[in-house]
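Input record (one chain):
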Amino acid sequence: MSSPESIRDEPEISEGELPKNRKNNKPRFNAEELSQLQYARVMFDRSHKLKQTGQPTQARDLAMIATRTVYKHYGKYSREYARCLNLLARIDCLVEDYKEAEKALEAARAIMATHPVEGSWGWVQMGIDANLALAKSKLKKFNDAESLYQEILKRHDKAKDTRAYAITEISLGNWYLDKGDYNQAEKYIRQSYLSVRKHATENEPIYIGAIVALGKLNLHKKEYAEAEKRLTRAHYLQQAFNGKSSFQYADIACYLSDLHAEQSRVEPALSFLRKALAVREKALGKDHPLVLKTSQRIIELQVSTTQQ
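The corresponding structure, as predicted from the sequence alone:
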């Protein structure tokens, strides 16, 4: 079995191909293979860190090293391979390549369905489902996305697995925001925010994510003072704990730009957009669609200034 050269080579796995009722026996490895797998784990962890700090190209390169090694030693039906596909798909989501992400995540989900859900693998399963829901939402497949989110919520006891439940509520709230259903968005976002305040600290992504979601909700409801307070706090925390090069830092800068633009504060709106553009251009290059979209928004704001 040869290892995939890229994510696009492998993820199409049909239900019919998958082995049924397979036993979850771990393969035995010799010393050299164990060394290779340890190296793959290091590459996986480094890729995850690079993804968080806004370096998707480098993150993908390291993730592919891990994926090829895992594919070779564990095989295409292993949970380990599904976890690697999930990481690669998450990187695709960061750069808004949602079709590729969907393709990989469908494969990962099909693989996980042949294994028992136990221990930390339950978190891997949840991550795959949540990322797939995000990809489908961005591709306007709203019914599929909602079904996945609701399925995740049913699998978790709110009292026993508070963090997993809150993470899903944040995602579902953001999904309803994208869809324009602000009443449902408010229900899930406020529930998650109350839970996160009790169970997470400010340096955790879940905490920052909850503040951002609530700030976005305030913005949609034109509660500008509350939106500015929360988004500014999230921007500061993101910078403090993950630096100015992360994609999340750029995303929050765009929300702050929208906040100021809606109040006809063009200069601060442009300032935040330029910060976002600098992060995205450095990570993705000048010709990436996300970079071009940010540049176009800057031009539109500049034009609006000259017309006033």
